[in-house]
């Protein structure tokens, strides 16, 4: 059977995400429906309760540092070099002795583990409750944009991409508010100067 192209694969992934979103919103037996909210229970890490905002912040920061150091070290390992070889051309990687199936399976396992734990930390440390609306298709688009802006092969670039995608709308909104306030002030001053 022929392998679907990358564009077709992306379309299938988007359709699957829409289907999962629809099922979560409209089938109350599975998720409780669109109004369902799951409160996160109180949690402790190494017998330290994570009930205050500072303890939750430092728990999330510690996980971020651990994941960053892990990914920086993976890049220099044999597994990281095998991933780069598979990314460039999996057939050529197989010729030089890299098992594409095992390497892709390891990449899938690692990314699933890191994504799952990071999502749990996001729910416990930031949201404190989980609803279906928090993980919409727009969040997926933002995550892909963060990685693309920061660079596909760069760990540190992902931080810059996240900062760019998340902070740029805030900065532009503040600049627009300041400009509108300045324009309003100058038009009011001009009206007063004309005696209107």
Helix content: over 70%
Structural class: mainly alpha
Give the beta-strand count.
4
Reading side by side through the largest sheet, how are the strands ordered?
A: 1-4
Please count the helical segments: 8
The end-to-end distance, rounded to whole angstroms, is 77 Å
Q: Residue-averaged pLDDT, rounded?
A: 81
Question: Low-confidence spans: pLDDT under 50, at least 5 residues?
Answer: none
Q: In sequence order, what are the helices and strands, one letter per element?
A: HHEEEHHHHEHH
Radius of gyration: 23 Å
Strand content: under 5%
Largest sheet: 2 strands, antiparallel
Q: What shape does the CA trace take?
A: extended
Structure description:
A hairpin with a 2-residue loop joins strand 2 (44-45) and strand 3 (48-49). Helix 4 crosses helix 6 (100-127). It is extended, with a radius of gyration of 23 Å. The mean pLDDT is 81. The protein is built from eight helices and four strands; from the N terminus they run H-H-E-E-E-H-H-H-H-E-H-H. The strands form two sheets. It has a two-stranded antiparallel sheet with strand order 1-4. The protein has a two-stranded antiparallel sheet with strand order 2-3. The protein has 196 residues and is mainly alpha-helical. Helix content is 75%, strand content 4%. The longest helix is centred in the C-terminal third of the chain and has 40 residues, at 155-194. It starts with 5 loop residues before the first helix and ends with a helix.
